[in-house]
Amino acid sequence: MEYAIRSADISDVDTLASFWVRLMEEEAPPLSEAGPTGFSDCKKSLLNMLPVKDRVHGEILEYKGTPVGFVLGYTYERPYGSPRFAGQILHWYVLPEHRGHGEGRRLLRVLMDWMAERKVQILEVMAKDDPGRNIAWASMGFSVTLKMHGKKL
């Protein structure tokens, strides 16, 4: 198989940050953007998050040994309500030329398995509101529960 998935670690921060910038360029406009310091800000954040291995996990999708996508998530315990133990998909990105082969879903399943091993009871994701994406999330068992509204100030 030419595609492979491996766990991300500190040595991958540049790769993860560059994918995050591409994700922001694709998903975030018009209200948000990576901005001129986005790469370095993301890298700094990743350097703080990745060492917390019991709560934060990332996976990298490679094609012939070259990174072509990533997924990053974390777990947390809600201070109230049920279900108590939650997981959040922070970022999920595959380069456009590597989409449509099922590898992105396989990448996401690896993260979801990691979440299940940690007894996560509900998995959440904040995603772009787009009919095609909504269908894709629904096909993986996700339901729309909230919509985020944004306004620049």
Average pLDDT taken over every residue? 93
Structural class: alpha+beta
Please outline the major beta sheet. 5 strands, mixed
Number of DSSP E strands: 5
- Could you please say which CATH topology applies here? Aminopeptidase
Helix content: 25-40%
End-to-end separation = 48 Å
Helix-strand topology string? EHHEEEHEH
* CATH architectural type: 3-Layer(aba) Sandwich
Number of domains: 1
The low-confidence runs, each spanning 5 or more residues with pLDDT under 50, are: none
| The CATH superfamily title | Gcn5-related N-acetyltransferase (GNAT)
Radius of gyration: 15 Å
CATH C-level label:
Alpha Beta
Q: What is the number of helices?
A: 4
Strand order of the largest sheet: 1-2-3-4-5
Shape: globular
SS strand fraction: 25-35%
InterPro entries: Acyl_CoA_acyltransferase, DOMON_domain, GNAT_dom
GO molecular function: acyltransferase activity, transferring groups other than amino-acyl groups
Domain N-acetyltransferase: 8-153
Organism: Leptospirillum ferrooxidans (strain C2-3)
Explained architecture:
The protein is globular, with a radius of gyration of 15 Å. With 153 residues, it is α+β, with helices and mostly antiparallel strands. It has a five-stranded mixed β-sheet. A hairpin with a 2-residue loop joins strand 2 and strand 3. It has one domain: Aminopeptidase (3-Layer(aba) Sandwich), CATH 3.40.630.30. The termini are far apart. The longest helix is centred in the first third of the chain and has 15 residues. The chain contains four helices and five strands, in the order βααβββαβα.
